[in-house]
Design a protein that fits this description.
Ubiquitin-like (UB roll), 6-stranded mixed sheet, alpha+beta, 7-stranded mixed sheet, 2 domains, L-amino peptidase D-ALA esterase/amidase, 387 residues, 17 strands
């Protein structure tokens, strides 16, 4: 059920003809009675900002953090499309608002796909009313599917908390780099919270999940994460809401990593013992985005040399005699020298889909975690074409 698991929400996903393949490509998530509820958003920091991001930011400001619906298309990103793109994003909101009988500023819009192409508005004009007429309690999975581009599976989550529920859908398989990590996510809850609280808990949830995810170091023009709260479960503690939203975001981020373009390994890279958290994050991100390190994961090679090199080049406090590197519990480097863990056990560990790479710099108490993946032939094949 994902986004429709919390009380007060409906969803739908249809094939509107945006994608030449005929696959599902248009989604709507809406409140059950089309009334606006508390809402918040976190958006890409890429200054090459796509039209739907501009429009959604504006609508959240104009409405005072209220939204009745989110309309999403896949296949075309509506990015680098100038004034035409802004007009088309606004028109998507207007058509959705007309079909739902709400205000245009109460509709948020997301797009994902190829950059530099304008939307086929004829198909969208016809598709949005069809999607709205298909809204249902069980439409979350269809909406998640309609968001997909190079994704191979839907990303969905439901978190059952103490007296309230959080649900979410997302898409993302590449062009993923922290701040934000290409991705779209719509999260709903039936908790009662004002927009100011939603902004805070969403930012915290994103920082602990999507902003710790990097596939290829390429930051998207369209990244958007939205949170809507129907309030039907009543007030809940801020800490409980923050924890549930963070859990939903982390689940979706891990699902993205598992479905990253061409990936065969999902790696949780933890850096501890840094001089401070900022230096730990810098070292972790540099290592996670190193092509040589990524290739070694694809080859299931626990070679520590590339990792040590990235740590030393990260521009953080560093002493090679204090550095320790381990895959899971298998220590491969420490005390200034290579270590000799059990070869068969280490090889078996490296064959797993999910790996933990633990790096201790031995310089302080700073720590950070990054979710990342390997680099395979399939990633290159997927990204060597634009159609």
């Amino acid at each position: 059920m994902s986004v429709t698991a919390p009380a007060g929400f409906l969803a739908a996903g249809i094939a509107a003809g945006i994608k030449q393949s005929g696959d599902s490509d248009l989604a709507v998530v809406a409140t059950r009675n089309s009334a606006p509820v508390s809402a918040a958003g976190v958006f890409t920091s890429n200054q090459m900002t796509a039209a739907p991001v501009v429009v959604s930011r504006n609508h959240l400001g104009e409405s005072g953090g209220r939204a009745a619906a989110v309309v999403i298309n896949s296949g075309i990103a509506n990015a680098a499309t100038g004034h035409v793109g802004i007009r088309d994003a606004e028109r998507m909101c207007e058509i959705t608002a007309s079909a739902l009988d709400c205000r245009s500023r109460e509709v948020l819009v997301c797009s994902t796909g190829l950059i530099g192409f304008t939307l086929p508005m004829g198909a969208i004009f016809q598709g949005i009313p069809k999607a709205v007429s298909s809204l249902s309690d069980h439409g979350g999975s269809q909406a998640a599917e309609a968001m997909m581009t190079t994704d191979t599976v839907r990303k969905e989550v439901v978190v059952s908390a103490d007296g309230f529920t959080v649900g979410g859908i997302a898409k993302g398989a590449a062009m993923i780099e922290p701040d934000m990590a290409t991705m779209l996510a719509v999260i709903t809850t039936d908790a009662d919270a004002p927009p100011s609280v939603l902004r805070s808990v969403l930012r915290s949830g994103v920082d602990a999940s999507f902003n710790r995810l990097t596939v290829d170091g390429a930051q998207s023009t369209n990244d958007t994460t939205l949170l809507l709260a129907s309030g039907q479960a009543g007030p809940v503690s801020r800490s409980d809401l923050a924890a549930a939203v963070a859990e939903a975001c982390r689940s979706l981020a891990l699902q993205m990593a598992d479905d990253a373009e061409g990936s065969t390994k999902t790696v949780i890279l933890r850096v501890t013992g840094a001089a401070n958290d900022a230096e730990a994050a810098k070292a972790a991100r540099d290592c996670a985005n190193c092509q040589l390190v990524k290739c070694s994961w694809f080859g299931e090679d626990p070679y520590w040399g590339r990792i040590a090199s990235e740590m030393g080049a990260a521009g953080v406090a560093f002493d090679p005699w204090r550095l320790r590197i381990a895959y899971g519990n298998h220590l491969v480097y420490g005390d200034g020298s290579p270590q000799s863990p059990d070869a068969q056990a280490t090889a078996a560990y490296m064959r797993q889909r999910h790996l933990e790479l633990n790096v201790d710099l031995g310089m302080g108490s700073g720590q950070a975690e990054i979710i990342t993946v390997d680099l395979s032939y399939a990633y290159i094949e997927e990204n060597s074409r634009t159609s």
